[in-house]
């Protein structure tokens, strides 16, 4: 007898497979099959199962044939619970790249990201696996957070400002450090998103692709609503006379219905309010 591992394993598998036990199995299967097919109930169940299988195949086929439709079971974003709610085409120009430079400047300079800064309760943060943040002055049970999408938009804005200053031969109002940080943040976002949409090319002079194709988008307005519901009453200094604002002063712009009581003698419980988005001194335009 071979003593190889192979044959030992096979012996193990065949163990108990004697004529006797094989006979027992056969009669068991026969009696099972008989009682199975004789039962009307079982036949109905068989029918229902068959219909179910046919439906499953049909549904799967339908699902696989419509890959560009937003899925009904699309997961909501984890914090503001946004989903894809609108469709937009890929386009060559929008007013933000208009030939009318006055209009272009107006649009870019008017991007306001103050609502990026929100106050979220520690309980809420806990439920969403967020770490605790520095204290919000008017409610010590809340931390200050910056919504990432607004941060990216802010970054794009200062890159635009820097380039338009360069173009016009004006002195740079934003530091290179800040601008390269912003470019890097946008680079990271692109890498992180890893957008796999194939945009069809055409034989045409303009460098553009994806014409007549559409993408599904979330609603920026809904994100803004979320930000407003959690307002941190934040406003950046925009005019030269506002540059003397302290950091706390930036949080004193509560809407009337916020319920926060703003005081002038607030004393911080910690090293106060670092890491806030800078920007937005428009001393010219
Ligand atoms: C350019 O845009 C500005 C600002 O919207 C507008 O007032 C002006 O009429 C536009 N100029 C032209 C030539 O369309």
TrEMBL record:
Show the Pfam families listed in the entry: UstYa
* Classification lineage: Eukaryota, Fungi, Dikarya, Ascomycota, Pezizomycotina
Return the InterPro entries for the record.
UstYa-like (IPR021765)
Q: Which family does it belong to?
A: Belongs to the ustYa family.
Share an example GO biological-process annotation for this protein.
Answer: mycotoxin biosynthetic process
Task: Give the UniProt keywords, A-Z.
Answer: Membrane, Transmembrane, Transmembrane helix
Name under which the protein is recorded: Uncharacterized protein
Entry superkingdom = Eukaryota
Q: Which residues cross the membrane?
A: 44-64
* Ranges for region Disordered: 1-20
Q: Where is the composition biased (Basic and acidic residues)?
A: 7-20
């Amino acid at each position: 007898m071979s003593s190889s591992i192979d044959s030992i394993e096979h012996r193990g598998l065949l163990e108990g497979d004697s004529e006797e036990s094989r006979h027992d199995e056969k009669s068991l299967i026969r009696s099972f099959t008989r009682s199975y097919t004789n039962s009307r109930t079982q036949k109905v169940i068989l029918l229902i199962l068959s219909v179910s299988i046919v439906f499953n195949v049909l549904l799967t086929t339908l699902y696989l044939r419509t890959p560009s439709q937003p899925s009904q079971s699309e997961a909501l974003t984890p914090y503001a619970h946004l989903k894809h709610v609108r469709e937009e085409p890929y386009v060559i120009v929008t007013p933000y790249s208009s030939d009318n430079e006055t209009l272009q400047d107006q649009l870019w300079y008017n991007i306001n990201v103050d609502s990026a800064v929100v106050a979220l309760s520690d309980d809420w943060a806990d439920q969403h696996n967020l770490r605790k943040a520095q204290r919000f002055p008017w409610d010590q049970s809340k931390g200050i957070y910056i919504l990432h999408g607004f941060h990216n938009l802010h970054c794009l804005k200062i890159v635009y400002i820097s380039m338009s200053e360069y173009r016009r031969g004006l002195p740079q109002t934003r530091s290179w450090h800040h601008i390269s940080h912003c470019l890097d943040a946008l680079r990271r976002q692109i890498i992180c998103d890893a957008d796999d949409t194939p945009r069809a090319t055409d034989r045409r002079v303009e460098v553009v692709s994806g014409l007549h194709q559409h993408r599904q988008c979330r609603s920026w307005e809904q994100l803004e609503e979320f930000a407003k519901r959690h307002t941190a009453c934040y406003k950046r200094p925009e005019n030269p006379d506002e540059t003397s604002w302290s950091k706390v002063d930036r949080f004193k712009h509560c809407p009337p219905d916020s319920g926060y009581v703003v005081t002038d003698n607030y004393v911080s419980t910690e090293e106060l309010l670092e890491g806030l988005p800078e920007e937005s001194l428009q001393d010219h335009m």
